């Protein structure tokens, strides 16, 4: 019969493996996305200010190794790994936190949610980059567009997004949808919209009021 201690050990091993696997996978995706941004058709140097990202709705920053956000991500990743190693020691060797493994693990998982780079959006010939992840066109199921006009739920959150265009993508075989991005002007949105249409990406009707749908 399996005792409680064995279950705690098994739980922590799964947690340790899962978090480490995620960190490696996310780091791989980020590095791959950084390389692919060199092929980006959009945005160019003078177009970053047209893309507003949640939740502060600030202008999008280039996805590069020199960015402060990337340096912060690397630093926080090191901290998480050190905490995992420390937990491993206290659970399996020192055995001082056996009874608090679940609570400690929950805190650790909460910290991993902080390991996120600011939202990003790039159009490249083979697909698009969303929030540091590359998706080939075959993985994009559809997208929705909403005009952020008065009475829209996002209207008034920030003056920069008022009257802008909220774009949400649906990725195949992914339950959680990526964060939306907002395009601030019609000319830029028109370019993006036409490019997605040319690539055969379906624009689905958003479930909002008629005057909010583009």
UniProtKB/TrEMBL annotation:
Spans traversing the lipid bilayer: 6-26, 72-93, 113-137
Key words of the record: Membrane, Transmembrane, Transmembrane helix
Protein name: DUF5673 domain-containing protein
Annotated organism of origin: Bacillus spongiae
């Amino acid at each position: 019969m399996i005792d409680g201690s064995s279950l705690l050990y098994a739980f922590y091993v799964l947690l340790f493996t899962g978090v480490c696997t995620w960190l490696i996978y996310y780091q791989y995706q980020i590095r791959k996305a950084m390389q692919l941004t060199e092929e980006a058709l959009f945005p160019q140097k003078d177009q970053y200010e047209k893309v507003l990202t949640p939740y502060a709705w600030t202008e999008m920053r280039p996805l590069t190794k020199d960015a402060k956000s990337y340096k912060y991500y690397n630093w926080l990743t090191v901290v998480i790994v050190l905490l995992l190693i420390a937990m491993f020691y206290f659970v399996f060797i020192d055995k001082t936190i056996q009874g608090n493994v679940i609570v400690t693990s929950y805190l650790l998982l909460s910290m991993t949610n902080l390991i996120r780079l600011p939202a990003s959006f790039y159009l490249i010939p083979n697909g698009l980059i969303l929030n540091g992840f590359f998706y080939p066109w075959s993985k994009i199921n559809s997208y929705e567009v909403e005009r952020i006009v008065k009475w829209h739920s996002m209207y008034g959150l920030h003056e920069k997004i008022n009257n802008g265009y909220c774009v949400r993508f649906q990725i195949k075989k992914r339950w959680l949808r990526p964060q939306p991005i907002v395009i601030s002007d019609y000319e830029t949105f028109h370019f993006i919209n036409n490019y997605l249409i040319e690539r055969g990406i379906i624009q689905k009707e958003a479930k909002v009021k008629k005057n909010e749908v583009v």
